[in-house]
Amino acid sequence: MALLTFQEHFLRAHTLSDWLQPALTWKDHNAYPPLFYLVTGIAGAWCGGLEIAGLARTNIGWLALIVVSTYFLGRKLFGGRTGRLVGASAAAVVAFTPITLTQLPSFLLDLPATATFLMALPILAGNASMKSRSGALLVGVAVAAVALTKWLTILSLTPALLYVVFRVLREAPREERTPLAAGLVVLVLVLATAALLINQNPPRSGPYSNTPAIAEVLSWRSGLSITCIVVLFLTFLSVRSVPGRNLLLASSLVLLLSAPFYLTNLEMLCRHLTNEMGQFSALADNAREHGVFFSDPTLKAPMALLLLPGLVWLGLRGPRGGLA
User: Fold this and answer.
1) 282: CB partners within 8 A, 6+ apart
2) Percentage above 70 pLDDT, the chain
């Protein structure tokens, strides 16, 4: 039923704002990640609307993505003729395994989550060295797709992500390892600071809906984007190697695409991590009682100064110059 509501938004959309509102701010009562709803809702709207009985047909596309991704993963890992044979065999096994056939007629998130996860693996395997700018951007989009398909599926991708990070750090020039690691840490600090600020100042709802107003969401995304650009610029002053810069670009792209959803659904994220309701609210209330969060609105913005030491260090350490 949630997807039919999402589809209805697109069926009734006439202006750009009508399209952006459900795409950027819509969520159901469980606050599931939006990619699955977005893809299926737009596809259903283009087809003139799908009924509940026809929703399961969209699983054919996810199954095709699973099969193709499995083939390319085997081909990439083994290489040559052996890789093609292994990839084709593995794809056939995955396509006809009982668990896949059981999920095919069901309209659930498991099949799309598996599809985006398997899609990300060959992309990561093919760009583990981060030597290609386009490949790094593709990695960022693929990882963000995993994060935006189903809660916590991104955790299954963590080992592969850590391998890529450690490989780039190991192969980077010795003098660039520290600023590169610092840049990644500052991006995490940006995310933590944004979580703090959005918890204290959540986007206001629109006049006719309980979803955040589109202007509020766009302002939050703009602020997050500007902060990431500043971090990238300062880190690029010290990191001259192509793989290091590409790793930072991919990390920033993941953050920009997936962080807004997670930041506006911190309560649901905490629920899926702890399997209990109200945990995040309890933690936030306890923190406020002990003065961890500032209660005065005029003092909330200075919390962003947590980023200042890292930004200054990156700026002073790097040689003078631009992004070249």
Assistant:
1) none
2) 62
